[in-house]
Give the backbone structure.
Amino acid sequence: MADKIELYGYTTSPYVRKVSCYLYYKGLEFDFIGVSPVEPEKTIGFSDGSQVPVLKIGEEWRRDSSAIGIWLDSLFPKNSLQGTTLDEQQKTKQVDTWASDQFIPSIFFRTAIEAEMTDAFRRRAWRLADIVSSAAEMPDPVKKAWPDLLKQAPFILRMVSELDQSEPLHDMQQRLFMELTAHLGDGLYLSGGSIPSMADFAIYPQIMFPYQVGLLDDLILLQHPTLGPWLKRVAGHLPQNPWCVDEEFIVNPLPFDRAPFRCGSFPRNRTGPFRWGW
Ligand SMILES: N[C@@H](CCC(=O)N[C@@H](CS)C(=O)NCC(=O)O)C(=O)O
């Protein structure tokens, strides 16, 4: 019997969403185990740390989304995440590193820290807390304090401190979207090849998840001449909801015609608190 695959995390983590996309793309059955960010030891105590995602296969486990992708390729080579030619492999690694170290910390974490504490910010933070709590229940006072807690989370502060903050946030975001467009160029996928890779799964979730769960009302990138068709192309390799969130949180469906879903499979029957619904 194949070893059981378990993804531990909270789906509000961009790095966790990256790994759920890998698993669907490879067509691997898995269980999603919700981790509470305030009591991570309850579920990932075995990893001696608090960082998610953690992927466990049988008795072995790994953390760090990029390392997990390489590990998965070594165990399940079908639908490689690292690109096929040497050029594609180099480009995949370059874009994946840029996504992990620049794009994600700037788009999400620096934005969270610098955003004004407006009603709109609070509403978004509370929605994130509800999503986390639906898979690993958090006490009401913690959920209520989520807008403040987001701005104080040590790992968020640490990641932001590693960015060059001399560039104003808005300029940084504009630059990163220009860089994303340049990485894609006129190619089909971010590796430059004809199939998706870890690089695509590092970025696609960060654009699509906030829209699908209603943190954003509009997805203007869809109108972009190259990024719009790329989003649709990547969506064709994934289910409509590859985020391990309950269907009730998906308020904006995929903004394309029903995407052809080619590679994934249904996850195992669940025993934990999380229920699948796609
Ligand atoms: N480079 C790591 C980053 C993972 C990461 O920063 N995870 C955050 C959630 S978004 C986390 O677990 N923070 C809590 C902690 O580190 O204690 C990856 O790619 O997986």
User: Anything to note?
Assistant: Residues 5-249 form a domain with the Glutathione S-transferase Yfyf (Class Pi); Chain A, domain 2 fold (CATH 1.20.1050.130). Strands lie at 5-9, 31-34, 54-57, 60-63. Confidence is low (pLDDT under 50) at residues 264-278.
